[in-house]
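Weekly puzzle thread! Below is a chain. First person to post its structure in C-alpha cell form gets bragging rights.
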Amino acid sequence: MEATFVLNPREATPHLIGQLLQLFAESEAPVTIRVTTQPKPSFDFQAWFQGMESIRARTEKVPVPPGIGDIDELIN
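Winning reply:
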C-alpha cells in the first residue's frame, strides 16, 4: 500500500502522524516516511501570454480559401 499526503508543516502534529501510521498497522512490512518540500506553484502570466501570441501569429498566416465554412474542410 502506498499513500501520499501533502500538508503544511504546522499541520503535522504527533496525533496526525499516529493516525497516518494506523493506516499501515496491519502490515508487518516497514513503513518509510519521506519528507520533501514542494515549491509553491506560480503562474507566469507573461510566459503564458507570449505563448498565446506565438500561436496567434502562426495561425494568422494560414490562408482560408473562400467558401470554407467547416474546420474539417480546411484541415483536409
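Puzzle host: Confirmed. Bonus trivia for everyone else. The first helix runs from residue 14 to 22.
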